[in-house]
Specification:
The chain is α+β, with helices and mostly antiparallel strands. The chain is built from 5 helices and 4 strands. The chain has 2 domains: about 40 residues, Winged helix-like DNA-binding domain superfamily/Winged helix DNA-binding domain (Arc Repressor Mutant, subunit A); about 80 residues, 2-Layer Sandwich (Alpha-Beta Plaits), CATH 3.30.70.920. Helix 1 packs across helix 2 and helix 2 crosses helix 3.
Length: about 150
């Protein structure tokens, strides 16, 4: 990946609906050259795809929490994932350093829904304890961009 690829990625992050011709004007390439580079970025896994970004609040999922998950014994990440994927409220999950085995990002419609999701999370046979932090407001959220 070189600086032109990084500029193409920046254009796509800013507006994934940009045409290859529009991106080409910004980076100094023809539309077919931009398409070839985008195809290579997709093939190599640098770009994982294109998607619509939806505000979860617009869909009624405006309550969020981050939950430290402490497992019973030594549970491999793949097993943690296999349990979490069954909970529709899990927006993301990460293995982390420190005392917790994972951090889980939950989204719910309201506090009652969040409480129900937390109860189901705590009920998983691999979970020993959890520590929850409810999000009051989002201060900053942005996609990764090349530096």
């Amino acid at each position: 990946m070189n600086s032109i690829d990084e500029r193409i990625i920046s254009c796509l992050v800013a507006n994934a609906r940009s045409s290859y011709a529009e991106i080409g004007k910004v980076v100094g390439l023809s539309a077919p050259a931009v398409k070839r580079r985008v195809d290579k970025l997709l093939d190599s896994g640098v770009l994982r795809g294109f998607t619509a970004v939806v505000d979860p609040r617009a869909l009624g999922w405006g309550t969020e929490a981050f939950v430290e998950v402490h497992c019973r014994g030594n549970v491999p990440p793949s097993r943690i994932r296999s349990h979490l994927v069954e909970l529709p409220e899990v927006a993301a999950a990460y293995t982390v350093s420190g005392a917790a085995d994972a951090i889980v990002h939950l989204r719910a419609a309201d506090i009652h829904h969040l409480e129900n999701a937390l109860e189901r999370l705590r009920g998983l046979e691999i979970i020993d304890t959890t520590v929850s932090t409810v999000v009051l407001s989002t201060l900053l959220e942005r996609p990764p961009v090349p530096h």
